[in-house]
Amino acid sequence: MERWQKILRNSLTKPDEIAKRFDIPLEDIQGVEQEFKIRITPHYLSLIKEKGDPIYRQIVPDKSELVDNELMEDPLGEDRDSPVHNVVHRYPDRVLFLISHVCASYCRFCTRKRKVGDPTKISWRFIDEGIEYIAGHPEVRDVILSGGDPLLLLDEKIEYVLQNLRRIPHVEIIRIHTRVPVFLPQRITAKLVKMLKKYHPLYVNVHFNHPDELAPITVKALGRLADAGIPLGNQSVLLKGVNDDPETMKKLMQKLLQARVKPYYIYQADMVFGTEHLRTKVEKGLEIMEALRGWTSGMANPYFVIDAPGGGGKIPLLPNYVLRLTEDEVVLRNYSGRVFRYKQPQQNGKMQIEELLAEEIQMYLND
Hints:
With 367 residues, this protein is of the alpha/beta class. It contains 13 helices and 12 strands. It is globular.
């Protein structure tokens, strides 16, 4: 057993331990556990400064998860877009390939609560079926490995998937989506990174929601991946009481860049059953984008998106910087509120020449 597996075994999973540690009624924890698994790694537990803080809210179960607010089990319609087990094929040239049902810790806002933690719903026995599907669809050039968390698999299983995908000529890039550097940075071993490095072009998208998650050991784990030539991107979820203020999000984006991670997406929280207490208004996301654009490096500006309910895909949202748009000009405001006018190009060169010729002919005829 590897060291990271021993650390994972010491995670908080028992309702009575969690209830005692955080002074929560035991019946609340037990009720939530029946709906969605609970696990808090020792590392992530060490980041909690006090009950109710941004780290706590992401990972400690809350009885609000049992409230029925008419939200959905599958808000993104993934099951509808799943042609075979473990594969979601929504966009023309890429697929989501679910290869692991487990996570190092279980986020209370998980969009895949209906599947994650259940080996019957995301099963290794369907891996070859997924690989065969991808091999049989030449339009697929981009494969995203997710779950659960792919990096919770043993190195040998991860390599089995990567090796078989790399044998498919039309698969150009592979992406791994993981929260392991946040929850279990010890998993990013030199051995794992050496193996991943063999399967370039390989990208890793991580998931940080708060600046406090970028602990020194985590930054070191990210550095190992970056040093192996693996481009890193970050996807955050906008969460009430976690990162729903501009300064927190700005600090997060800046710290990510320092750790060589490019901010990629801020997601409006999905409409997942049991997450109403963590969702924010869309206006809050637009306010945060206004606080980033122009006020910090452009590289620190991710896309703010809503993953449209029912399988509509990611839709980007921006604050309204265009005040007026006509054939003659565009009236814009910048990040600080100043207004500028940009002159539209007139008719193309060919039309201008034709008009000039017509004018010359008319002048000659009138002479």
